Amino acid sequence: MAQQEISCGLDYTIAPDLQACLTEALHANYAFIVSQIVHPRFRLSSLPSGNTVGGFTRSDMILSPQDWNSRVVGRVSGYLDPDSPSHIVQKRHEDSLNEELAYCRGLGLPAVMLSLHSRKSNNLARILQTYFETSHHPTLIWTSVPMICHRTMRVCDEDNSNEEAWNEPWHWWTKFHECMGWDKRIGVVLEISADLPSKDIVNRWLGEPVKAIILPTSLFHNNKKGYPVLSRAHQQIVVSMVERDAQVIVSGARRSNIVYYLQYLYRLWKRRPYVVDDPMLSYARGWEDFLQTPLQPLADNLDTHTYNVFEKDPVKYDQYQKAIAQALSDLQMKRKEEMKIQEEDSAGLTNVKEIISGKNGIVENDRPFTVMVLGAGRGPLVRATLNAADITNCKVKVIAVEKNPCAVVVLAAQVREVWRDRDVTVIPGDMRQINLSPKADIIVSELLGSWGDNELSPECLDGAAGLLRPGGISIPREYKSYVAPICSPRLWAAARAASPGNAQQIEKNLETLWVVYMQNKHNIAETKPVFTFEHPSEGIKNQDGQEVTDYRGLKVTDNRRSTTVTWEVKQDNVMHGFGGYFDCVLYGKEMLSIVPDTHSPGMISWFPVFIPIRTPLRVQKGDTISATFWRCVNSRRVWYEWIVEVDNHTTPLHNPNGRSSEMLL
To answer: Does residue 662 contact residue 638 with C-beta atoms inside 8 Å?
Structure first.
């Protein structure tokens, strides 16, 4: 969850007096310090640790347990390389690393920092897996990598060195993280360089679980008043990282008073675009990357709290009101045109009064338009309809259909107390099972989920199609679901651990759609459409080309869907799943959208969905990602299935027969 304040630490390359260093940092208002676990004078000899006698570092009594547990990040010795090609060095460094980690466990440090220097990290990952298995304290592992690999820069050809040098540290990190099973206790610490990479590479890092960034003091330059400041490009990176929960570590020589660095970072954070300016950011604060199970309002009745949250949307109901007003205006215009035609063709009628009264099958001019609100909840769409009627100066008869008994009580109370002078009727029951007359000129519903149809809007509206007169208007008229392949170790790890259990439960977690405000993620490719639904729906036809009807005379529809979507990969990445979105045409030009490129400004009713894959896929620049999605339906439930192909690699089919997740009819 995104932090409201920036958290900064101070890095001490050498701390002769650890207590004095911590006191200095805390007095300057730094939250923590980073220090070597082993003091240089205690550096281990070349002998295996089992043959050493006596302590190898300072006593833990120099600091209080509270300081160790919350204010010190320990850094393991930088020279340790348990993946060294030399077996002798490898064993000695492995023993030393285990000893330092064991001491960290004893101190109860909140985090331990170590450095990666190459893609070879299998033995390091094995050691840390053992450490996690045997440790009772929830220590985090911070893996430090540079933003650019200078060794690659020197070795590679001039033409390719730039891109490869920027990509190499990311490969170190993702290879190591993959060996650790994308464990959420593992995070990356990014050492910011003076030169910065392309926007695409920075955005890729924003999708990784960056726990902290290291800002060398050499990146700061003094302004006219002599205070340290960062370039605009570095400012943007700092703010972007901190927005995704990264902490800031100031490192390097003291080129200015340490207080000035912290004060500048505080000011930089406060000057960022304020969340109040964006209702979505303000609403989502505290819910970033927090997975939620999608609602099933058809199978379950929503509670008062849920209604209250959705009714606060400042945009959605305004858009609905505009759409209803436009629909009423069009119906008025259509009625006037029909009246005009009938007047011209009414030579056999005695006077205009008969025309207006509706005799002889002629259209009635003063008949109110019937608007049915299906799934009325506590009445926000009823209010939008009445407001639209006032705006267009139309007479309307509103019929509110709602199956939730608690919401029906609220609707009935509003009919008595608020809408007593309006023509509003409340009908309790399932919209698919009632039969009302007269039929509606307009039906209005808000049955959409975060992936469009995942709250069973197609099945509900098709079941209620008999309530709409021929030629009537449905609001919404059309909606589409969209997906984009994403990289997000944090979301994937959260989905994996969402419901603790055995391997079978973990597999189910990774075959389930999760509603989440995605922040710590990177889009691998652009967003593309998946399924489309329109209302009123077209019925299926038999072999003679005639529409098939059910026992009620309603058109039989088929809401099964399947589609294959492909993308070309623009840069090396790791795919953890898909981001799912939708947009909706209410009526005319009025739309609602949570697709990133067309998101309705200020709308807060829907977070996107995260669609995980069971095993993350490593993709390379130039690869083709091909994903096939199925929407499956039977008599009592609806579910999704999906499969992903990257060149010659194919994932297993996800959620076959809805074994892990489903929507009940």
So the answer is: yes
Closest CA to 453 of 638, 607, 291, 598: 638
Three-state DSSP class for residue 271: coil
Per the structure block, which two tokens stand in for 597?
A: 């490129």
Q: How far apart are CA 177 and CA 485, in angstroms?
A: 19
Cα separation, 324 vs 225, whole angstroms? 59
Catalytic, 133? Answer: no
The residues near 41 (Cβ < 8 Å, ≥ 6 apart) are none
Q: What is the pLDDT of residue 424?
A: 96
| pLDDT value at residue 341 | 82
CA neighbor of 250 nearest in space, from 209, 221, 219:
219
**Side-chain-facing half-sphere of 380: CA atoms under 13 Å:** 17
Q: pTM for this structure?
A: 0.89
pLDDT above 70 coverage of the chain, percent: 92
Strand-pairing partners, residue 568, are 624
The number of beta carbons lying within 10 Å of the beta carbon of residue 602 is 15
Q: Which of 100, 402, 446, 641 is catalytic?
A: 446
The amino acid sitting at 652 is P
Of 400, 406, 403, residue with least CA distance to 419: 400
Closest residue by Cα to residue 32 from 12, 2, 5: 12
DSSP 8-state assignment for residue 176: H
**The pLDDT of residue 135:** 82
β pairing state of 649-650 and 624-633 = unpaired
Any idea what DSSP says for residue 432? T
Which residue in the list 455, 459, 507, 662 is annotated as catalytic?
455
Q: Angle at Cα 184 formed by Cα 179 and Cα 186, nearest 5°?
A: 60
Q: Is 78 helix (H, G, I), strand (E, B) or coil?
A: coil
Burial of 20 (0-12, 13-18, 19+ CB in 10 A): exposed
- 398 token code pair: 């509103």
The SS3 call for residue 398 is strand
User: CA 323, 388, 373: angle at the middle one, nearest 5?
Assistant: 70
Q: Establish whether 547 is a catalytic residue.
A: no
Q: Cα(43)–Cα(347) distance, rounded to whole angstroms?
A: 110
Rounded CA separation 22/265 (Å): 20
Q: Name the amino acid, one letter, at 143.
A: T
